Amino acid sequence: MVSESQFAFLRSIDTPTVCNLIEIVAPERRGAGYTTVHLHCPFPDLPPMVGFAKTVTIRARDAVSGPGYMQKRMDYLDYLAGEPRPSVVLIQDLDDPPGYGAFWGEVQSNVHKALGCLGTVTNGAIRDIPAVALDFQMLAGSIAPSHAYVHVVEFGIPVNVHGMAANSGDLIHADRHGAVIVPTGKIDAMKTALDGLIAQEQRIIAATRGPGATVENIKAAMKG
User: Fold this and answer.
1) Whole domain around residue 161: which residue ranges?
2) End-to-end alpha-carbon separation of the chain, Å?
3) Quick one: 81 and 136 in the same domain?
4) Per-residue 3-state assignment (H helix, E strand, C coil) for 181-207
5) pLDDT score recorded for residue 1
6) Could you tell me if 53 and 168 are in contact, meaning their C-beta atoms sit under 8 angstroms apart?
7) Looking at residue 218, what is its pLDDT?
8) Angle at 119 between CA 16 and CA 123, to 5 degrees
9) pLDDT of residue 67
10) 95, 59 in Cβ contact below 8 A?
11) Best label site of 89, 98, 144, 183, fewest CB within 10 Å?
12) 143 in any annotated domain
């Protein structure tokens, strides 16, 4: 469980700061659990989104139809609407290369927002950017004009989105910089560590901006 105060704390800081704090309280996570490839962010001024992962794989090159697929679409909506919420939808596009067709646009962003989704992180494509649901954040591998034959392959399964291996239900923090999985058991420790991190960074920056900045001053500041 994540409390509202913990959510508020995470929303108050950006994703690089979250990564820095994770390095302090869970040093084994320093090199994993975050996106490692550039993602297009059409709404860079939106605040961080913090929500639980809803995991999906898609394809767009090949057509799919039939009653079985329509039932899968309905089952996916039930998965999306279920707890935990709020959610961040992590979509792994399985096409090679990904982005042949866009899953995300005006319709899907509005449907997902109505069902408790804050936004998406995907290696696939997005479109309809001016018409996307209000305050719906999108971090995507590409921007494309068509949805082609885009369809859900599986959901609720492990995915890897631009280097971030995630499972359904993981807590995700994301903003214009990318996304990271937050270890829920470490949130309070992260909050405690924040003041020390800020003080350390400010000490180093102050040493670089002082009127008599020298390498010795900077070294001293870095050593604390």
Assistant:
1) 32-182
2) 36
3) yes
4) EECHHHHHHHHHHHHHHHHHHHHHHHH
5) 86
6) yes
7) 87
8) 75
9) 80
10) yes
11) 183
12) yes
Residue with tokens 């605040």: 47
Closest by alpha carbon to 18, among 42, 34, 1, 5? 34
Which tokens sit at 32? 């994993």
pLDDT at 130: 97
Residue 99: predicted pLDDT: 96
CA–CA dist 177, 147 (Å, integer): 26
Distance CA 27, CA 29 (A): 5
Beta-bridge partners for 178: 175
Q: Assess if residue 3 is contained within a domain.
A: no
What local confidence, expressed as pLDDT, does residue 214 receive? 86
**87 domain residue, yes or no:** yes
Question: What residue has token string 């400010």?
Answer: 202
Q: Give every CB contact of residue 192 below 8 A, 6+ residues apart in sequence.
A: none
Structure tokens at 115: 């069902």
Q: Show the tokens assigned to 22.
A: 């994770």
Q: Is residue 60 part of a domain?
A: yes
**β-bridge partners, 165:** 160
| Category of 178 on φ-ψ map: left (φ > 0), alpha (ψ -120 to 50) or beta | left
Model pLDDT, residue 98: 96
Strand, coil or helix: what is 214?
A: coil
pTM of the model: 0.94
Q: What is the mean pLDDT of each run of 10 residues along the chain (224 residues)?
A: 96 98 96 96 98 98 86 95 97 97 98 98 98 98 97 97 97 98 98 94 88 85 82
What is the reported pLDDT for 188?
Answer: 98
Residues in the chain: 224
**C-alpha to C-alpha distance for 40 and 96, rounded to whole angstroms:** 19
